[in-house]
Amino acid sequence: MSYRIAVREPGSSGHGTLAAYARLAKLDIYDYYLGLVVVWALLAPALRWEPRTFGLLALTLLAEVVVVAAMVGFDDITGHRDGSDAANYGSDAARRRLARKPLVAGTLTEAQALRFSWTAAAAGAALWAAVVAAAPYRPAWAVVLAAVCVAASVQYSWGLKISYRGFQEVFLIGLGIGWTLVPYALLTGGATGFVVVQAVLFGSGPMLFGLYSNTSDADGDRAAGRITVATLVSAPAHRMFVAVMTGAQIVLIAAATAAGTAPRWFAAVMLPLVAMRVAHLLIGFRGDILRARRIAIHAHRVTVVLLVVAALVAGATS
Predict the structure, then answer these.
(1) How many CB atoms lie within 10 A of CB 182?
(2) Which of 93, 142, 224, 237 suits a disulfide with 3, CB 3.0-4.6 Å?
(3) Which among 281, 278, 303 has a CA at the least distance from the CA of 292?
């Protein structure tokens, strides 16, 4: 079956170009930004409602959005140059929405995308510097972690191209962990064990649904020289890897509860997440990778709701 893709000429309409830039920035994918809601819920009740808290979280959100815009902009440029986006999206346009790749769809030129990405990278670094400057606390580890997250994001598919060098899965979980721990530490001066557990559970969500994308993209990524676990091992071995990573999240929930790092009721609260994880794992094993990915995305968003509930209840009972 073939698909006929209707696209605008690059820059042919001001409205169309603005929409294309929004698609380049992937503004519809907000999953990393949800960590700030978890951070807010983890704060002490009095600190939660301070105007300064809302101001810092709003500035952090803006910094995250701009850095991600740079990251995915450079990623699209690299994917367009090496042909992996055309290979991964062109054959499945109806399900994967080719328009989300404006360079492949022809709604932006590479020069436009480059200007946008470099501008976003500079603005994102400046905004994160402003976040640190405005924070009531500046623990050294949090400042360093913030800088690492910015640098790694910009070089995800550009410069060092860490997602091409075998570090994609580490980055996907690491960014979510960093963007939970950093704002919490800047607001409070440190992080408890329960905060770290929540950060890891949050950060593992984008990694898990990213693994399904890697499964679907393995042939195109392999042809482009992009190293992921999916390109290095057989399909059955990668399914086992996904199962192990999914199981690790479930084990963390049980272990944190058993060890007392999380409240004794924490595992019970997280049971809906466990059910969704098992569901997308089984669907993925049966071969419907994109459906499994959609469920994994929803599972991540359910995780946020459950973590917020757990944090609010823990704060109210402490």
Answers:
(1) 29
(2) 93
(3) 281
Q: What are phi and psi of 227, to 5 degrees?
A: -95, 115
Q: pLDDT for 48-103, tens place per residue?
A: 999 999 999 999 999 999 999 999 999 999 988 888 777 766 555 444 466 678 88
pTM: 0.89
Give φ, ψ of 176 to 5 degrees: -65, -40
Find out whether 137 and 199 touch, Cβ atoms under 8 Å: no
Average pLDDT over the chain, rounded to whole?
A: 90
The residue behind tokens 């090496």 is 82
CB 207, CB 275: distance < 8 Å: no
256: Cα within 13 Å, side-chain hemisphere: 25
Residue 280, amino acid: H
Is the four-CA dihedral 220, 224, 230, 235 of positive or negative sign? positive
- Listed by start position, the domains of the chain span 24-317
Burial of 9 (0-12, 13-18, 19+ CB in 10 A): exposed
Sites in the chain below the pLDDT cut of 70: 1-16, 88-99, 318
Q: What angle separates helix 35-42 from helix 289-317, to the nearest 10 degrees?
A: 20
Query: Using the 8-state DSSP alphabet, how is residue 27 labeled?
Result: T
